[in-house]
Amino acid sequence: MEKTFLMIKPDGVQRNLIGTIVERLENKGFKIAGAKLMHVSEELAKTHYQEHADKPFFGELVDFITSGPVFAMVLEGENVIDTARLVVGSTNPQQAAPGTIRGDFGLTVGKNIIHGSDSKESAEREISLFFNDSEVLDYNLSNTDWIY
Ligand code: RTP
Ligand code: MG
């Protein structure tokens, strides 16, 4: 099954939105294969956002993502990479559709609450940057023998 990487950025954590965001992702039907609260080092931030290294906002982006804890997740589901990006919404929260995470909670492009991988290649790269193999779990959600 396809996997993607999502990360609630420091602004989302500071605004106590972890529960609300995870609830939306679970309600959508995605399966959580891995999750953790962590600090992003400067080195990891620069590697993660290396495609933006030449952009004028790169320094600010690295400073912001390392400014406080993030909540990193691996989600699993059919077509999860593209569908999670739809749930996340457009990059600029001021243009993101209502009903999306950025549309409902984001304030500015620099503080847009959450990151989501944008392709199969980025998803694989980002999952392996943020998670060890042992932190991405393979388990069955449909084992309901215990419900009577
Ligand atoms: P992300 O990588 O964080 O999921 O966001 P994205 O794909 O929607 O957008 P991307 O183009 O990859 O940009 C990465 C992050 O850089 C910040 N940004 N700031 N000041 C600016 O003009 C500007 N443009 C982009 C945003 O926080 C964006 O999420
Ligand atoms: Mg991106």
Automatic annotation (TrEMBL):
InterPro entries hit by this protein: NDK-like_dom, NDK-like_dom_sf, Nucleoside_diP_kinase, Nucleoside_diP_kinase_AS
Compartment list: Cytoplasm
GO molecular function, one term: nucleoside diphosphate kinase activity
The protein's enzyme class: transferase
Catalytic residues in the record: H115
Top-level taxon of the source organism: Bacteria
Alphabetical keyword list: ATP-binding, Cytoplasm, Kinase, Magnesium, Metal-binding, Nucleotide metabolism, Nucleotide-binding, Phosphoprotein, Transferase
Catalytic activity, as annotated: a ribonucleoside 5'-diphosphate + ATP = a ribonucleoside 5'-triphosphate + ADP; a 2'-deoxyribonucleoside 5'-diphosphate + ATP = a 2'-deoxyribonucleoside 5'-triphosphate + ADP
Pfam families, per the entry: NDK
EC number(s) reported in the record: 2.7.4.6
List of residues binding ATP: K9, F57, R85, T91, R102, N112
Domain called Nucleoside diphosphate kinase-like: residue spans: 1-138
Keyword Cell membrane: no
Cofactor requirements of the protein: Mg(2+)
Protein task: Major role in the synthesis of nucleoside triphosphates other than ATP. The ATP gamma phosphate is transferred to the NDP beta phosphate via a ping-pong mechanism, using a phosphorylated active-site intermediate.
Subunit structure: Homotetramer.
Family: Belongs to the NDK family.
Name of the featured protein: Nucleoside diphosphate kinase
Naturally occurring in which organism (per UniProt): Salinicoccus siamensis
